[in-house]
């Protein structure tokens, strides 16, 4: 009996692992390192590092040697060298190419390019005028697109990294830029309309299937848009839509702010929150077709509460985390205001259905400017 118990404990420990997540701030001066113990299901603040300023959007470069943080207020991007023990050393801050007659933006979202020469790409928006830009890792070479008379604050890559799909929330359209090995950001190949949609909020793409997914903020819909292998939209293609909330929930009372695909590529997660002061969040998980990536059906849903103040102004983001040793896909969630980071896992329940399980929650309430985007190290 005792040996059986010891074996159980040992097995549990053998699978335990620590994972790390950098988290920026929307309006503050720190970058946080959070540590997740996946067996104990605990999330703790490991480090509170001094940053060059706020960094609502953060991204690793392709080699994972540097972390980049963007600052919309002064139109800059800072580079940090990632040291041992998840320390960060500020190496420099560069200005993004001036656009829209300003160097001060409302939002900047950055991500690493996925093909050589692996620059950092971003979209910057004043709310009414936007630009797509890139910056070499050294910061010396910058490029920008023509100005876009709209609000672009989200973009995603095609599987081969040769197409950048930028979402314009004003026109409810998706701009398809061709990115060659020697890009100039001038080749806008197509502008596709998200049919019958308003307030499109975030776009992601499938890592292998040729497919884009968009969530709409006010109508709380997930729109699934298949593409041809050349990443262009067939004009007669049906854009499939799913309501992300339970059917009985009135759309007017909720906003949907984010979506993410899990590391196993098997599920797509959406995040919604109430506009009312009851501060409720709803996470919905949809199964994807393993080959095409098409959205199949909702498999799990969960709600939880946190202080978020005015729900209509909140920025809350999902970020895919690792798949842990027992096969559970983790997804993290950061919110501002509310200063919270939480980790959730999709677990197989005894009755054969799926459920969302909490893997830890960190409150960073001493820092009201927390939390911006998260980025998992391991
Ligand atoms: C930038 O300034 C120029 C010259 O004043 C003006 O023609 C143009 O419309 C401005 N662009 C924006 C996006 O405000
Ligand atoms: C457009 O969307 C609204 C709300 O989502 C829906 O009621 C309506 O039927 C849709 N119309 C078309 C033509 O798809
Ligand atoms: C869409 O149009 C293309 C070419 O015009 C055709 O080959 C394809 O079968 C059509 N697809 C559907 C779903 O109608
Ligand atoms: C998900 O897709 C990415 C990109 O192709 C790939 O690297 C990864 O191995 C896939 N994950 C699984 C579990 O198939
Ligand atoms: C992190 O450190 C800064 C500077 O000392 C401090 O203002 C902030 O409150 C700290 N954050 C947390 C969550 O304790």
Give a brief description.
The chain is built from 1 helix and 28 strands. With 378 residues, it is mainly beta.
Provide a descriptive summary of the structure in words.
It is a single chain. This protein has 378 residues and is mainly beta. The chain folds into two domains: 222 residues, Methylamine Dehydrogenase, Chain H; 115 residues, no CATH class. It contains one helix and 28 strands. The strands form seven sheets. The protein has a four-stranded antiparallel beta sheet with strand order 3-2-1-28, with no helix packed on it. The protein has a four-stranded antiparallel beta sheet with strand order 4-5-6-7, with no helix packed on it. A hairpin with a 5-residue loop joins β21 and β22. The protein starts with a helix and ends with a strand. The N terminus is likely disordered. The structure holds 2-acetamido-2-deoxy-beta-D-glucopyranose (NAG) (5 copies). The site of one 2-acetamido-2-deoxy-beta-D-glucopyranose has 4 residues, from loops. GO terms for molecular function: 6-phosphogluconolactonase activity. Belongs to the cycloisomerase 2 family. It comes from Lophiostoma macrostomum CBS 122681. Pfam families: Lactonase (PF10282). Keywords: Signal.
